[in-house]
Amino acid sequence: MTLHVVALPHTVTDGKYNTCAYTSRVIKFCRMMTGQDRRVILYGHENSTAPCDEHVVVVKEQRRQQWFGSHDENDLDRGGFDWNPASPWWSETNARIVGEIAKRAQPTDLLCLTAGLAQKLVADAFPNMIGAEIMCGYEGILTGPRPSPVAVAFESHTHRHFVCGLNGWRFPREYDTVIPNQFDPEELPYGDGGDYLLFMGRLVGGKAPQVAGMVADALGMKLVVAGSGGREWGPTFVQADEVRVEARDLEYVGPVGVEERARLMGGAAVTLMPTIYQEPFGGVAVESMMCGSPVVAKDFGAFVETIREGVSGFTFSTLQEAVDATERAMGLDRRTCRDYALGRYSLDAVAPLYERWFGNLDSLWGDGWMALSGSRHFAGVD
What is the distance between the alpha carbons of residues 131 and 111, in angstroms, rounded to a whole number? Predict the structure, then answer.
């Protein structure tokens, strides 16, 4: 089996672009899969550094800059990117990908998609290839009729159930699965913690960073804010388009790269994630745990799965619960917190989940799960 891995047009599959969760996941997916008993072909940007058996260039840097302008790799929110498949970057990139896959694809290869409906053109071009949405943290999955299925690996059980609800499905689809985001422990070393609270993420309303400021003030602690979106800032505030974060002692450091990201997480007493929308995964939480820093997050979305109460952090519903939980989290054992994250979310822990799923998908070319019915079947429940 060959894996045809389709990257994204707006970033480079390189570690510098770590603020794009999907780009980071493409890189880590290639790390896990390359060197196994299969070939990995990556279709991406000319400056890609992700490991693979063959790298096929479908986006040139000059073209990417024509689409999105020249901007810092860690401040992609200013690039004008959207997920509309009719956008020129999707239609043009997808068309190139189709042409390149057509030169290489064999009947039992696996089409590895990373952007759902935005890559529908690619899926439609190869109706007899089994498709796999390998890192689904979005809502627009591919569900239409097709000779071969497009199966989905959701980032969390909560997100899988959420998407099923959006589509009105009361029953699961047989070959969908849940595979969590994965992280490289070498990029996230253990840290002994410090005396500040950390908020790391995009400064948008859904992430509710202003709540982190309220918690910090209630505990009389410094708040460090890291992430894209800050337009104005000072020693007591950071102003973004949608939100203003205020605290008596606040430091805004902007978007950060891999090393600084790990340093801030390892040095934090607690990482706060007061996200108020249905978080598909929330990778910052696991990254923080892997550095030894417990997480206090809203009791909603994927956090109810990724945080083990009293081991790697706590969840909350009200502001007072957030303050109390943060105070308790500072007493948790940081080594135990890291061990928990390594055991569930390291590359070594997650790779076997993909192997199992690919084995199940490969069986569709034989008898498959529905063999007793006498036909290959993939439920798209109405």
Answer: 5
List the chain pLDDT tens, one digit each, 382 residues. Answer: 899 999 999 889 988 887 788 899 999 999 999 988 889 999 999 999 999 999 999 999 999 999 887 655 555 544 446 778 889 999 999 999 999 999 999 989 999 999 999 999 999 999 999 999 999 999 999 987 777 789 999 999 999 999 999 999 998 888 899 999 999 999 999 999 999 999 999 999 999 999 999 999 999 999 999 999 999 999 999 999 999 999 999 999 999 988 999 999 999 999 999 999 999 999 999 999 999 999 999 999 999 999 999 999 999 999 999 999 999 999 999 999 999 999 999 999 999 999 999 988 988 877 665 544 334 444 443 3
Q: Which of 204, 199, 198, 200 is nearest to 77 (CA)?
A: 204
Q: Are strands 177-178 and 150-154 parallel, antiparallel or unpaired?
A: parallel
What is the distance between the alpha carbons of residues 110 and 40, in angstroms, rounded to a whole number? 10
Residues in the chain: 382
Quick one: tokens of 348? 């070594």
Nearest 10 degrees: Cα torsion 292, 193, 19, 112: -10
Backbone angles phi, psi at 241, to 5 degrees: -60, -40
Q: Where are the domains of the chain?
A: 2-182+348-373, 185-343
3-state class (DSSP) for residue 36? coil
The amino acid occupying position 244 is R
CATH of 185-343, one of 3.40.50.300, 3.40.50.2000, 3.30.470.10, 3.40.640.10: 3.40.50.2000
Residue 307 half-sphere exposure toward CB, CA atoms < 13 A: 30
- pTM here is 0.91
Query: Which of 219, 236, 349, 231 minimizes the C-alpha distance to 272?
Result: 219
Could you give the residue ranges of the DSSP H alpha helices within the chain? 21-33, 61-68, 88-104, 120-125, 157-167, 209-219, 258-267, 283-290, 303-306, 319-329, 334-345, 347-362
DSSP of 76-96: GGGG-----TTSHHHHHHHHH
Q: 2-182+348-373 sits in which CATH class? A: alpha beta
